[in-house]
Amino acid sequence: MRVVMRVILIAILLFGFAGCSTNGKTEVETSYTAEDIYKLAEQSFFYIRVLQNDDRVKSVGTGFFLLSDEKYAVTAYHVVEDAEQIEIILNDQHIISDVDILTYDKTKDVAILKLPVEERGEKDGGLEIRKSPVTFGEEVFAIGFPLKETPIITRGIVNNPSALINGRNRILTSAEIASGMSGGPVLDTNGQIVGLISGSLRTINNIHLVVDKEDIVSVLNEQ
């Protein structure tokens, strides 16, 4: 009987410690569905239109706002490379013109955008950058505009958290990505940024390239 009671007591103690942190509080990590992720990001990502001086469209893509005091906007550099005019179109169809490139790194494929003074601080939203690296098999979500006024969200896994592609480390993901989504955010199940959409791996079908959040931070720190 004593042996049985001892086993029960040990099981109770182990269960108690497993559910609590060292400060006595239960640790519960938030994990969102695809529907939750989209709602969380809806006010924080936008459509980008790059125009020539004659107002003809040169390229399009996606970008997003970071959660910070300055409300920095981020996109893939190849979307805005050699841009003469840049416009941001928010999900409520508000157009922000005269957007400039604050700083960029072509190799990392990251560009930080500067909004006109009158537009700063007037928008809602902003996404938080995750601190820890992604891992093999982790679930992630990609968001962007394959078509104007047609944002989408896709879901996949991290196929490789740090693959050397053309001399740069890239996250590889199976989250589906289409043209126009470049520069959009890739989020984890907590709704935090793990990287931005850069392109596709031509040698393997349905595997796509993501710029790691560390590269975003490094470019941001250069400005």
TrEMBL record:
Keyword vocabulary terms for this entry: Hydrolase, Protease, Serine protease
Pfam family, one: Trypsin_2
Keyword Glycosyltransferase on entry: no
Signal sequence interval, chain numbering: none
Residue ranges crossing the lipid bilayer per the database entry: none
Superkingdom of the source species: Bacteria
Keyword Metal-binding: no
Name of the molecule in the record: Trypsin-like peptidase domain-containing protein
